[in-house]
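Entry 14. Two folds queued back to back today. First construct below, sequence then structure tokens.
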Amino acid sequence: MSTLPLPVEHARRVDLPVDPRPAPLRSTAAGQDPLELIDKLEVIRQEMADDIAVIESLLTGIAHGRSVAHQSARHLLAAEGKRLRPMCVALASRIGTGFGENARKVAAAVELVHNATLLHDDVVDLGELRRGTPTARMIWGNAASIYGGDLLLVEALELIRETGLVDLIDHVLSVIRQMVVAEALQLGRRGKVDADEATYFAVIEGKTAALFRAALFSGARAGGVDEQVARALEAYGQDLGLAFQIVDDVLDIAGDPAVTGKALFTDLREGKMTYPLLLALARDPALRPLLEGIAANLDAPVDTETARAVQRSVQQTHAVEDSLARARAYAESAVARLDAVPACWAKEALETVAWASLARSK
């Protein structure tokens, strides 16, 4: 794990009236207005409309069979997603020779791997909704969702093989291995209440950052980018993934359920210690029995009184603000990695992606 300074102060206990509503997310992008960042990201999406359309076309051609595994896979692929990882592939390739056939296959493969993990996660976490629609497991069952995920992994590896870039096969296999190990590590700690930062970062480096790394490095290689720049983009992907996941954790505590599409404390109810809770627990020992009570009844919803007590602790320990500060530090590091990348529109777009990852609301 890369070592970054944690720009936080010790917990400051103050007696403030507790607002039962989620704390609003603030701009954390070096003084940039979050709405402007989201607008910039939307402009990038519009300028990449043709690239995204090609990716969607490739994804539509996946999983044509009639089995429940194929139906499960198609169900998730058809649901609206951010497609951020394939966008990163396309941008990395445009730093080189462009978004050609190999880069397109890599972009689709990266998105397939991502969706495969979601199908598996929904089974492990007993997820009922994904992207605003019932999960595949709720329609066809757990086994179908697992096999659907397996199917997408095979399709992804076949696409990588078709590029003829042998080193990418090894790279993607290594990333999938890291993701599985991280998922297993998280599963082994499910329901355990602790403030173990080392384990937390080991999990998110494997679960989230690894695939962002793969997207940037593989996109660069498919676009003929030289080794030094490809490795810089890979490091950018690592830091981007860490920032992205920490913000995701913040949204679980302080987001708007109407926007995020999931209830507050969803991760906690799935037995996962998010970064804001990890910080709050380290600073407020009184939080432990509350979290242990939730962890002992993972299948039960968090009652309003307990939810407000947890939010009170998060507020008083400044866990949200300090989590966003940590995410900002990673975003700043990601942007700094791009110093090795030659000036071009794609580089500027990647800078915007890093900053916009802090400003997102879902």
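Second construct, same run, same settings:
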Amino acid sequence: MGDLIPPNESTKKIAPWLEPIWDGMNLAKFPNTILIHGQSGIGKFEFSIELAKALLCEESFGAKPCNHCEACRWFDSANHPDFIALVPETHRKLLPHSDFDSDSDSPKKSKLSQADSDGDVAEKKEKKSISIEDARSAIESLSIGSHRGGNRIILVYPLEMLRSDSANTLLKSLEEPPKNTIFILLADRLDRVLPTIRSRCRLLSAPRPDRLSGLNWLRTQLSMIPGLKMSDTDIESIYDEQGGAPYAVFDSIVARHNKDELTIAIQASRYLLQSMSQGHRTNWLDAADKTQKARYSFLLATMQRWVSDLQSCAQMGSPRYYPKHEITIQMLAQQARLPKLLRLWKSLIQARRHENHPLATRIQLEALLSQYQQVFED
């Protein structure tokens, strides 16, 4: 993986569109379990990290986190003994980098799970789900009192990627939460979280920003990246393609700037769009062959957004994700057979339910792209 540009300090703060939620929180009377859900890439994780730090802050007066007390300093150095993060190996970069040795895949603290970006090229030996061993280890540690006598925080992200055995282990602790233990759970897709877990949580919906606010925030962050030059038109195009998720757009642009492995997924997405723009002439075998090495979930999201825009235009609407391709999408929408288009949409939804555990990625891509081509045939 290429060296990522360290995020500016401001990217770690609460996103402006999440500040109303933050301001409405009562840290003194916080629930045992909170489930923060919302679209991926809108700042939920950064919000939860700041929330965990605030709940562990030992300052008696003033706003939290104070960033000065011993607990805050420990948290910033990723050495707070009462903070436990359960994330899959594919999400390492989302945690403070000092949780891990730079030259080793082993965490400095055994109670922290490994994590990294989920690009298929780099993740051949990385697990996408939270292992039952990590979950059990974290739960077992709860039988011991907190190290500093205050709160203990268990952060789980993404909750929907818990294996069933790990989810059951977590559920047992949610039913009878240990004293002074707070669970911060995060999910990109609430519908994929077990109902038994949802029913034991205080639900908190994280909103997506309006387009103007999101773009303003994004431009501010990008202006702090040395050597990065990108036109407003390109920024807005990527912003729309990512469904208006500013953090996801920021990561994509920085990845492209640093030429790391996520660039492969971005390039594959571009090729996939070019192929799908051909309608009935789509060469689905070639498209699957040229894109199969990219992250499967990334490709599925690209297909789903394109098909969503097709459905919108077929019903007299406008494209949401690819407005710069509106002429092509409008033309294809006129050629599409709506019943087939709806069946393809259902196939994509079904595929996304298993996107983190794909079997024979190329074969699945071929099947979906072949079905797409047939949308434009009688």
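Quick look at the second one. The chain has a mean pLDDT of 81. The two ends are 46 Å apart (CA to CA).
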